[in-house]
Design goal:
Blueprint lengths: L11 E8 L1 H5 L4 H15 L2 E9 L10 H13 L4 E4 L9 H13 L3 E4 L4 E2 L3 H34 L12 E4 L3 E4 L1 H16 L4 H9 L15 H9 L6 E4 L5 H4 L9 E4 L8 H13 L18 E2 L7 E7 L7 E7 H6 L8 E2 H16 L4 H7 L4 H31 L3 H7 L1 H35 L3 H9 L1 H7 L2 H11 E6 L10 E6 L11 H6 L2 E2 L2
Parallel strand pairs: 1-2, 1-3, 3-4, 10-14
Antiparallel strand pairs: 4-5, 6-7, 8-9, 11-12, 12-13, 14-15, 15-16
Helix pairs in contact: 6-10, 13-17, 14-16
């Protein structure tokens, strides 16, 4: 590099312009800057040897400003630039540390900086000193812009308004109408919640289901589904009509460490896609597999998903109604999930929760206490095929984890390789690593869920005496168990519950209880098979 030892005459000018998206709206357009700078060059008799402009790029740092970095390279390699001309000092940088480094670089290469609005020309000794003071004001201006923008976004969030950016799956956005439902995408969102919560699908199985039907269930960018994209749908309270803002602070700098619990969650002005009840049950299920739940009223439903709507055959889900307006007490029901999720399909077809639960428990006790039931059940219990399937899923997930870990190490290694950084870009590498981290989060969560299922299945394959003990003491164990274990116990025995159709709720009763012991054949004519094969006869 050439150290400047003597004053040189300015002849050749490189014009640099930059504007962010917000500034474009406010009248600092690229064309406006360019026109002003061209007039200044004409008045001074300067020759313009190059135009460089970065449109829609922030002035926080120079990392993403490809045109400015190209200008700095041309200064060193071409040697035909005497000065850079800008409209305002903030076009170069709003950060003092960057400004100092840029000025040092220009001085090392014997190139001046001319800012027309600030009336600064570094060929003047007086202006060389003033430019640092102007840089301090530029950084202060930038901090004010950031602060005002954040305050504005914070207020918009409190008012339930979307703060811009790519809208979530299921919605489009316009300043005039805000978030508006795209029904084709919304059906995908509902399907994900239904598969996860009502069908007990894990992330892996949901991805498999969606990716085999991409013509119907597609992502916002029309890409294949991944664990991370499924998880992001289940995480997003926008689907129950909420606006969440401020979860991540300075994400570009802090990455994962920038996540905070001190965020705004307010009622949005948009239409929700998912029913509150389905969201609550999703949160509860995710809590059971290691996710932190949102605050909600805790009401136990022992049979959620087991009763089937007498009209459409869909699963019936928990439903509550306040006893009084200001009361914390509720009437408990089970309602058709299709109605609960859409309010348009089917009808509520409510059944009393407490009455149904008590009836089912009594019938299960009667069933278990019949002669020879335990022997028939334990002699016909399966599970090996299910265990093998889970082991295959675990193997697949572990393979994906290993591959993702290898990919992560590769991209981290790229960060130390100047050639790779120049070719791919540091920000692209960091974004890719973050995407891999998100994928690994969901993969490990999926592995945890599968390992838990495997353990439960292995533990369920008990010997005859252990099974006999559990079933013989079902009534006693059930009374002593906590709510979580009661739910698990009933769901492990019952496959589904059919309901008698009726116009009035008092006439809707349990028609049939179908059990999981469906491997028991009816080849024997003995009375026991008639009692326990698939159903409990009422």
């Amino acid at each position: 590099m050439i150290k400047r030892k003597e004053q040189k005459q300015v002849k050749n000018i490189a014009i640099y312009t930059r504007v962010s998206t917000i500034e474009q709206v406010e009248g600092y357009s690229i064309n406006a800057q360019k026109t002003e700078l061209e007039k200044h060059c004409e008045s001074k008799g300067y020759k313009i040897v190059g135009y460089y402009n970065d449109a829609g790029i922030t002035g926080t740092s120079i990392k993403k400003r490809t045109q400015f970095k190209s200008l700095l390279n041309d200064i060193q390699n071409k040697g035909n630039i005497d000065a850079i001309m800008i409209w305002k000092l903030s076009r170069i940088s709003r950060k003092m540390v960057d400004l100092v480094n840029i000025l040092d670089y220009l001085e090392d290469n014997n190139v001046y900086l001319i800012s027309t609005s600030d009336n600064i020309d570094t060929s003047s000794k007086k202006d060389k000193s003033f430019i640092y003071l102007a840089g301090i004001f530029a950084e202060m201006e930038r901090d004010n812009i950031v602060s005002n923008a954040k305050n504005g976004m914070r207020q918009r969030a409190r008012e339930g308004k979307w703060n811009g950016g790519t809208p979530p799956l299921g919605y489009s956005y316009s300043p005039e109408n805000g978030l508006t439902i795209i029904e084709e995408e919304a059906s995908t969102v509902r399907k994900i919640f239904e598969l996860y919560t009502n069908k007990n699908y894990g992330y892996s199985k949901i991805c498999q289901y969606l990716n085999t039907r991409l013509d119907v269930y597609y992502t916002k960018k029309r890409n294949a589904w991944s664990y991370a994209t499924v998880k992001s749908v289940l995480d997003n309270p926008v689907y129950i009509g909420k606006i969440r803002w401020g979860v991540r602070e300075e994400w570009n700098k802090k990455r994962r460490s920038g996540i905070t619990d001190d965020y705004i969650l307010s009622d949005g002005i948009h239409t929700p896609i998912v029913a509150q009840d389905l969201w609550d049950r999703t949160i509860e299920k995710r809590r059971l597999v290691g996710h932190k739940p949102s605050k909600k009223v805790h009401i136990t439903y022992l049979l959620s998903g087991l009763p089937k709507c007498p009209e459409c055959g869909g699963s019936m889900t928990s439903h509550r109604i306040k006893k009084k307006k200001d009361s914390n007490e509720y009437y408990r029901y089970y309602a058709c999930s299709r109605w609960a999720n859409t309010k348009t399909e089917c009808k509520p077809n409510l059944i009393y929760a407490e009455k149904t639960e008590n009836f089912i428990i009594n019938k299960i006790n009667e069933f278990i206490n019949q002669p020879n039931v335990l022997e028939v059940i334990t002699n016909n219990l399966g599970g090996d095929a299910d265990l093998s399937n889970i082991q295959d899923e675990i193997k697949t997930v572990k393979s994906s984890i290993n591959k993702s870990e290898r990919d992560k190490k590769t991209y981290i290694k790229y960060l130390t390789d100047e050639v790779k950084v120049k070719k791919i870009g540091e920000d692209n590498l960091l974004d890719t690593i973050e995407e891999i981290n998100l994928k690994l989060d969901t993969l490990y969560s999926e592995l945890y869920e599968l390992e838990a299922k495997k353990l439960n299945l292995e533990n369920s394959q008990l010997d005859y005496k252990q099974i006999c003990f559990i079933l013989q003491n079902f009534e006693k164990l059930f009374k002593q168990a906590n709510d979580e274990y009661k739910i698990e116990l009933l769901h492990s025995i019952i496959k589904e519950i059919k309901i008698n159709p009726a116009e009035k709720i008092n006439n809707r009763t349990v028609k049939e209880i179908i059990l999981h012991f469906n491997d028991i054949s009816q080849k024997d004519d003995s009375k026991i098979y008639e009692v326990i094969c698939d159903t409990v006869h009422l």
